[in-house]
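wait is this the right file?? whatever heres the structure
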């Protein structure tokens, strides 16, 4: 596996997760009045989700020689199926992908309170994802 690429992606997601933590240290009511913070958090979530999926693709293509991909959620389910991620992390990341889709495609107006709440929950999730990927990569 391209360890340099994997490490670059992991470093990038760690940096973004820290930025999300910083934004989420703002009390909710202040956050809701700060349109820059709202838009920054949306972009950070989108970028983190894209990196998670890029890491998943890297592992599936290089580690398992899978060439045909059936979608974002499929990537996460394959990582769980192949023992790269735990069921808990895989399922929770699916919710993050759905949130990303809502932000990108504007399926509905994103409720900023929900965005704040779910983003706070995602901080720990991302840390666990990074840990599980590192554990998997260290076995090779």
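ok assuming it is, sequence goes like this
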């Amino acid at each position: 596996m391209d360890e340099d690429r994997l490490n670059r992606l992991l470093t990038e997601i760690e940096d973004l997760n820290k930025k999300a933590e910083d934004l989420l240290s703002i009390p909710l009511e202040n956050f809701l009045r700060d349109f820059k913070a709202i838009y920054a958090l949306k972009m950070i979530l989108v970028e983190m989700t894209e990196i998670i999926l890029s890491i998943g693709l890297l592992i599936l293509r290089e580690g398992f020689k899978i060439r045909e991909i059936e979608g974002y959620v499929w990537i996460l389910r394959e990582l769980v199926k192949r023992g790269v991620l735990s069921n808990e992390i895989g399922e929770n990341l699916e919710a993050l992908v759905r949130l990303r889709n809502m932000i990108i495609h504007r399926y509905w107006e994103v409720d900023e309170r929900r965005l704040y709440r779910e983003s706070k929950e995602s901080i720990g999730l991302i840390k666990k994802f990074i840990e599980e990927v590192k554990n998997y990569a260290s076995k090779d």
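The chain has one domain: 3-139. so i think its the right one actually
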